[in-house]
Amino acid sequence: MVIDVLRATTTISWALKNGADSIQVFADLDLLKESATKWHADERLMLGERGGKKINGFDLGNSPLSVTKTVVKGKRLFMSTTNGTKSLQKVQHAKYLFAMGLPNRKAVAEKIISLQKDNVLILGSGWEGSYSLEDSLAAGALASYLETNCDFKVNIMNDELQAALALWSLWKNDILKCLKTATHGKRLTSLGDYEEDFKCCSELDCLDIVPTQVERGVIRAS
After folding, report:
1. DSSP 127
2. What CATH number corresponds to the domain at position 20?
3. pLDDT tens digits, residue range 53-84?
4. Which residues face 218 on adjacent strands?
């Protein structure tokens, strides 16, 4: 389970909701470009972001608002972002790998419950290896849902997730404010007007999409 609230896993979720065929994630930009060239130009899009900004020469950046049905339907998205796609690549050997933002928390949680696995790893992407408030918030939101809705006991295995649960309890009634308070939220604010992105990323349980890795590095809706 990988979380990158601002904004990769939110963008992935909305892209699949809007009919994208699949998303292939990359840490390396050159490998992305090489892989994209193997697809017909009208069947692919390249999404690239570094430091919150769209990369020159790419079709799109990393905004969930940009992946509209008109733009992405039926296409393979080749995607590389500062944090989220790197995290997805780090755990691509997992048997079950999902991408979660706040909008699809319930859908992903219900999928996890249905699998009835002994252990679930929740990986917050953070910012270039550092802690991020918004990803911990979402981890807490997921853990809270699982605790409330599982018909079996959920054991919280580390202090990080206990802290995430406390964070969720504190901010669950004002998610938008939490995202704007976070360091990365402030970074985005300094780059321009991302108000609508914040609103989109802060919506809870509004998507029924479970982005699932179907082959290494390739994510489809389930």
Report:
1. B
2. 3.90.1560.10
3. 999 999 999 999 999 999 999 999 999 999 99
4. 24, 215
DSSP state, residue 41: G
Q: Which two tokens stand for residue 167?
A: 């964070």
Give the range of the structural domain holding residue 88, as residue numbers without chain letter. Answer: 2-221
- Among left, alpha and beta (phi > 0; psi -120 to 50; other), residue 96 is beta
What per-residue string of b and e applies to 24-39 under the rule 16 or more CB within 10 Å gives b?
bbbbebeebbebbeee
Separation between Cα atoms, residue 122 and residue 138, nearest integer Å: 10
Closest CA to 131 of 98, 164, 180: 164
What total number of domains does the chain contain?
1
Rg (CA), the chain: 16
Summarize pLDDT for 178-191 with one digit per residue, the tens: 999 999 999 999 99
Cβ 22 vs Cβ 212: under 8 Å? no
Residue 5 near residue 138, CB atoms below 8 Å:
yes
Strand, coil or helix: what is 60? strand
Strands 44-50 and 53-54: antiparallel
Letter string b/e over residues 173-201, b meaning 16 or more CB atoms within 10 A of that residue's CB: eebeebbbebebbeebeeeeebeebbebb
- Write the single-letter amino acid at 103: P
